[in-house]
Amino acid sequence: MMKRKLLALALSAMLLPVAGSALAQAAGKISGDVVKIAVLTDMSGVYSDLGGKGSVVAAEMAIEDFKAQFKPKFKIELVSADHQNKADVGSNKVREWYDTQGVDMVTDVLNSGVALAVAKVTTEKNKIMMNTGAASTRLTNEDCAPGNVVHYVYDTYALANGPGKAVTKQGKDTWFILTADYAFGHSLEKDTTDAVKAAGGKVLGSVRHPLNASDFSSFLLQAQASKAKVVGLANAGGDTINSIKAANEFGITKTQTVVGLLTTIVDIHALGLQTTQGMMFTEGFYWNLNNETREFSRRFFSRHKKMPNMLPAGTYSAVLHYLKAVQATGTDDTATVMKKMKETPINDPFAKGGKIREDGRMVHDMYLVEVKKPGESKEPWDYYNIKQVIPGDQAFQPMSASRCAAVAKK
Full-prediction pTM beyond 0.85? Predict the structure, then answer.
């Protein structure tokens, strides 16, 4: 019996290096010789114009451009789904993708409630989430997972920082905030309040409305009654569009300044310059910024019939950056790819000199924009005057203020 045990131990000792070597080799390969990317977004709801099919188009463009430049030996597959703005639908879908369909990376994940749920599944399954759609700073603070989650395009800190400070310093120093009643709106309200106070202003009050609200009249009447100089909209997509329309109908825009804290070019296009002229907000991308952004955006427009806002532009960049890291390392192993992505600067139509910090935040320049008057616009979609380029290290929450336990423990 003793001899058998000794023989078994000896065999185990001999096999350990082999097993370790096999594992190391497995980590150095692309599983199934296929890299599979998934776009999880709002295809039919209140945020569908922000991401939706536009994000899928952007991901397709990134894959095509990557193939043309690098001619990879591995296959690349793209799948997509509608999370319906429901956290359980989103988390169940990505679990299915990871468990049964070999998905390596999920992107967009528009809607903070969905993104927080998806981030947990992604961490559990040790995959990668390149979040380009959700805004809550919880993703790099209390709920951070920097080994698995990258917060790529914007967040509520950056969205609030530009207009919160700039508009307040113009003398419009009292605010009332309309807030979408879930994680994104709560974060944006808090970050706007902090920015306004830092600039010497006050927030006189706030009111929360349900996602995809059908009627904004009661909420706007409270804003009007507050006599605040600024009505801040801590919402997005269809909710922002409908808020602004209702504010115009009630005559609020004649006496108070309306600031859409997450507003993009598709919202301005839907509302028109006559309604939105003079509005100020923070954007992460403008199609008409330079020759490179114009070339990318016109290609996107030829497919989607809309100019890209910062979300699909960021999705293009995120997918391209991820694939470049896979190509450079020769593997889709999560830790290896994440390390490479953090080491490599990001230079493409979306970002110049962008970098992924240790907390998972991708840092890049943001833009404080003002909507042009109708007579200033020279062509369709020519809607912005760039008032200020906000350097990335000023646009986003500094690492010194991080509440990410994974970083704080280092």
Answer: yes
